[in-house]
Task: structure prediction
Amino acid sequence: MKLFLSERAPNPVRVEIFLREKGVKVNAETIDIMKEEAKADAFVQMNPMKRVPVLLLDNGTVISESVAICRYFEVLNPEPALMGRTAEEQAVIEMWNRRAELNLFLPITHVFRHAHPAMAHLEVPQIEAWSEANRPKVDEAMAIFDEQLTTHDYVAGDTFTIADITAYVAINFCKPARIEVPERFVHLNRWAERLRERPSIKG
Result:
């Protein structure tokens, strides 16, 4: 089994945090996306989406997409449960994880990929106006998560889950994307500071 990652890229970081929470170690190989190694023929044969992370199983099965990889390890290592136990827990966690992915993380990546000079050769065409159009979406999503965290210790309730991992990685990616996390989002900022002290996140 081998896990293909890329240093500092947010999606691989999501999987790495998940695995550390589980106490699972997997042989890893680094793919340099800035050098376009994800576009090499051998890698494209594994993942035609040309993205990391990718998990290659011993039997040759390839699993890409962060949540799919996490789901695989959740089934094999059910404790601690990061995707819920009951039908209700699983649905609520999935709901908040999707909100974190689609409404928070994705707009932040659009801001980064369509404005940062280092991404110009990877994001073709790079459209600065699309970067700016996504900034208000980020602020709107932050407000929703801040409100959720006024009455809950974690994003999907009272326990740490994959939804926290996704939301945290999104918030942490604001720095390279040159997005400020407003001080008025007191609960969101407090939650992020608390998560930074988790061993799985500190590395």
Q: What stands out?
A: Residues 100 and 167 are 5 Å apart (CA to CA).
